[in-house]
Amino acid sequence: MASAIPTFTKIGKVIRLNKHGCTNRPFYHIVVQKTRDNFDGPVIEQVGSYDAMPNSQHEKLVAVNFERVQYWLAQGAGMSNPVAQLLGLSGFLPNHPQTLIQSWKNRREPPRERKLQPIKGIAPPLDNPKI
Amino acid sequence: MFARSSSRIFNVINISCIQSRSARAWVRKPLGSPMAKSKMFRIAPKKFIPADEKAEVKRLYDNYFHQMKSLRHYFFEQSLEQAESGEVAQMKHRLEEEEHIRLMEENRLENEKTAKLREEKLKIQAEKTRENILASLINKEEETRLYEIQIEAFLEKQKATPFIQAENIEKAIEEALANPVDFNFAIDLDGYVYRGRETAIEKIPEEERERLRSN
Predict the structure, then answer these.
(1) Per residue in B138-150, pLDDT tens?
(2) What local confidence, expressed as pLDDT, does residue B2 receive?
(3) Which of B4, B60, B65, B73 would you mutate first to test chain A, the one with the most A CBs within 10 A?
(4) What is the annotated localization of this protein (chain B) (predicted)?
(5) In chain A, where are the structural domains located?
(6) Looking at the domain that runs over A13-79, which CATH code has it been given?
(7) Which of A20, A75, A97 sits opposite B64 (nearest CB)?
(8) Which of 58-117 (A) contact B at CB < 8 A?
(9) Are A13 and A72 in contact (CB under 8 A)?
């Protein structure tokens, strides 16, 4: 339900990924929203973006507005796991435990079959296709 | 691009508010429906995590939450400090000051204007009251003068009427005894006196007509 109706209870705000893009081509907006809004509902502020598809240089591009993220964290906004992980990897926040757990699991287990092939270009190809 | 969002309203599941002709989205199995044959004797696989790994995961999460808590607190404190002394706050303060000065100036001018108007009004009023007072004083004087004149006239009249003083008393008695007054008469509306048995004034001859006057 959209939050266009005026409410008097305090609804928590959350920084999370909103999936946009199209079929087989996801693209995420890092966004501040009220918890009860849908991904396609009203957004308080867009605070970055995350491209899940690696580009020709085998990079997954992430953009984050750290000043605004700090402001919203100060206002008491929550964070979803992926956003927390991204911010940890960027160095703004401490590393999320999930990143470390996933990394040692990747080292342990054999890689999974993937539908999409990584794009071969200038940078050397990934040796762990799980990432 | 937009996934169908199924809503859960009043515990009625699997309804979408958005009308669509394609397949309905599935939220959950209806309560009360029986278990499927393929799932009857299924045992869900439980992941085994060794104890040391569990301990490591717990340690990582505890550390992380501790750090995040302190970070959030720190961010909050920073935001408070910025609100007090940041650029935005300073600008706001400056603008408020300017607004205040402007409004005070406006107020002062307004006060001056109204003071001028008030003074003029008061002047006019003072003039009016002064004139009123003068007029009333003059009136009062006139009235007292007239009153005194009337009193004088009255006194004169009273003095003019024949009062019997102590010296005249014997004379007055003798006079009264010598001239008895006979009140056995009738009187007309016009004041004509009828002493005899005549009832019309025409019957009485002119020389013997008597008329009382109201002085």
Answers:
(1) 999 999 999 999 9
(2) 44
(3) B60
(4) Mitochondrion
(5) 13-79
(6) 3.30.1320.10
(7) A97
(8) 70-71, 73-76, 93-97, 100-101
(9) yes
Residue written as token pair 């209806």: B30
A interface test, pick of B10, B17, B18, B72 with most A CB neighbours within 10 Å: B72
pLDDT of residue A4: 62
Examine the predicted complex and report whether its ipTM is higher than 0.90: no
Does this model's pTM top 0.90? My answer is: no
Q: Which residue type is seen at B15? A: I
- Alpha-carbon dihedral B143, B146, B152, B156, rounded to 10 degrees: -140
Query: Which positions in chain B touch A73 (Cβ < 8 Å)?
Result: 71-72, 75
pLDDT tens figures, A63-111: 999 999 999 999 999 999 999 999 999 999 999 999 999 989 888 886 6
Nearest to B76 among A20, A74, A93 (CB): A74
Cβ neighbors of B66 (< 8 A, separation 6 or more) are: none
Question: In the structure encoding, which two tokens stand for residue B56, read together?
Answer: 């490591």
Shortest Cα–Cα distance, B5 to chain A (Å): 8
